[in-house]
Amino acid sequence: MSDPQAARQLAEQSRKHPGAAIVLAYITWRASAYDEALTLIGQQEEALRMQPALRWLARAIGIRGDVLLAIGQERQALNCFQEQLQLAQQAHDVEMEGLAHNDTGVLLIWDDPERAVQRFQVAYELFKVAGVGHEANLGLCALNLSVAHRELGHHELSDDLLKEAETLILNARAWPYWIGVINQRLLRLAAQHRIEEVRQLVHNALAIDLPEDSRHTLQFFHAKAELEHGNAQGALVLLNGLSGWLETRQDMLDDYLDALTRAQHATGDLPGAYDTLRQLLQAVKARHARERATELKSLEVIQRTAEAQRAASALRAQAATLQALHQTSEERSLTDELTGVGNRRQLMQWTLRQRENPQPLTMAFIDIDDFKRVNDRYGHTLGDQVLRTVARLMQRLLQPSDLIVRLGGDEFVVVRPSAQVNEFSAALEALRQACQDHAWPMDAPVTLSIGLTTGEVDLDTALRAADRAMYQVKAQGKNQVLVFSSTDE
Question: Taking the model in full, what pTM does it have?
């Protein structure tokens, strides 16, 4: 997004890599070349499903969903986003998981902004926890949350989110997203008839080294703002300078011709307005024809993919297939559905293996402070978001080899065999601090009470000791890490 031409060159130089075609498909979709994007996806999708390369396949399916959304095929687009989400979760790909939620929100935003906010918020939390490297996507979610909250009449919150989005996206140099932010600011200023601020905003934006397409898009939004303000002649000058831009942005042609018609009419050029209106009608017909052709191409891609999948399935040995199904079922049975960490069954299986080779355990019992208040005051949807975010903080800040289990409700257990208690205690303190400092969407932070025990060989004994340590933390004021050993009793 910061330099599409450089990205295209790199992808062209890496044609043998399965992801190169998907990068090119993304670039062509961004340029509104929908047929080309679908062709590139179709050329690689069969191979990606056979490998399987889940991360790249999730990207391919997501781009196909974006193309379908752009041509009005919302049901098919939703199917793509749902498959993208499943693939991303299997691959532990936070970026694709977040974008699947975000794009589903885009699909919902005008018809059901409240549900769109929920999707955008989930995506926002995913990218917030993911941290460095996800600033552009975090900014995109903040932008979409701003628009959705504006639709719901939450103007102050919407403006705050727009400011956050602008900072994140500008620092990431994600120019297509940033132009969206600037357009929102232009619309809001124009609606208040603050045209001088509109002009200053455009002037400041053009002082940045933007890609050519972003500069032209900004010029178009400026023209629309001038038109809304009543400066039809100024709008006409800006619009007349954009005719070459439309050769590569056919997706903007309808809006451009509509604005040009209104500007010509307002300046008294009625013959020109009539001719432009005829061009607009022809453009709409041509767009509908392209959308039908793109829809047919998408159906062809889906059909070829389905045929390839059936052929591949026929070649697989039945035993291997059954083994894969069994493994998938086993993994799901050991995973907490809401948070993605282990569940009680996984802890029990781990206990059985521990008995075969006993070794000293270091165990933490973690409880979310006042979690019932979160559910009672803000609802279970936000409560579920809190649980997911706490689980992701654990996965990010603790060791990959740690066993992380949700016992139920707001209680978690973390087991680290043969650990140095000081090292583990420091990691848990970092987790507690990160949770307290996280940007929660409530009026108070979420805190953790953590009891830690060490030296026990028997897991049940360690669990009881860690549980007692956690309750001691509760009695001492919560939001602490307390180390407890059975020898202290």
Answer: 0.56
